């Protein structure tokens, strides 16, 4: 069994790009102009307690799939809750996936893939995500904003900065922890290497050689180099387009949050208030 994943043709082969980042397809912008087979991921052997293993995806999932992920030693899932379709829309798969992940005992983080070319401002797209979750009884404590695939952004870096700022300001107004999902190349292209971002913004960076197991980099932060405003990383995406438990996912490692709760902090139950599902707060810095 294998899954077919659709990729956009954003094969940005910019010469300035570091060698390790030659492929800039965007897994989050489904486009079937290029299809590849997602090969099975290698087994997680989690013997490094300072890292949690995670996957990120936007596909619809079942409880069986998420229970399988938990058994396969994944601690947390990063679930897309805003899709860049149209002007940016709440991701209808998110609520079911979050409920299933909660039932499976997985930690849950949510990310948004905003639509920078939209009649909706950044904060309005954030509100679609936030209200979509809250109206379904889900408490949101953190948000990750995807800033990748420069071709999908405005040409003006100052417009892009204002757009990102609009999302961050709204999320902070609601008391959320905010993280950015990007890398040095994307950040430079999209924001012109914006450095004055507030230092409390977390970073989830990606580095892969290409899709599949053979395109993976190390599942730790040893390849991280500071860029833009980011001195440290909290999450790394080290694999893309692999199949785990019949879901096509990207693979991540993250610094575990709340040291005093190190053992239980990744358990969704530790973040439950009166049975209410809480997303965000599983990642440290
Ligand atoms: C997919 O990408 C190609 C090339 O960029 C584009 O022409 C096509 O319209 C896209 N398809 C969809 C469904 O977005
Ligand atoms: C990072 O991962 C690689 C490959 O698994 C391993 O050889 C290396 O020792 C790791 N580095 C650290 C600092 O954990
Ligand atoms: C973050 O950076 C600081 C120095 O700027 C360093 O002391 C700390 O160990 C780093 N944390 C991680 C998780 O790498």
Automatic annotation (TrEMBL):
Task: List the keywords (alphabetical).
Answer: Signal
The residues forming the signal peptide are: 1-16
Any one Gene Ontology molecular-function term assigned to this protein's record: lysozyme activity
Question: Could you mention a single GO BP entry for this protein?
Answer: signal transduction
Q: Which domain of life is it from?
A: Eukaryota
| PROSITE patterns linked to this entry | GLYCOSYL_HYDROL_F25_2
**Entry's InterPro entries?**
GH, GH25_Enzymes, Glyco_hydro_25
What PANTHER family does the database record attribute to this sequence?
LYSOZYME PROTEIN, LYSOZYME-RELATED
Give the family, as the similarity comment puts it.
Answer: Belongs to the glycosyl hydrolase 25 family.
What protein name applies here? Lysozyme
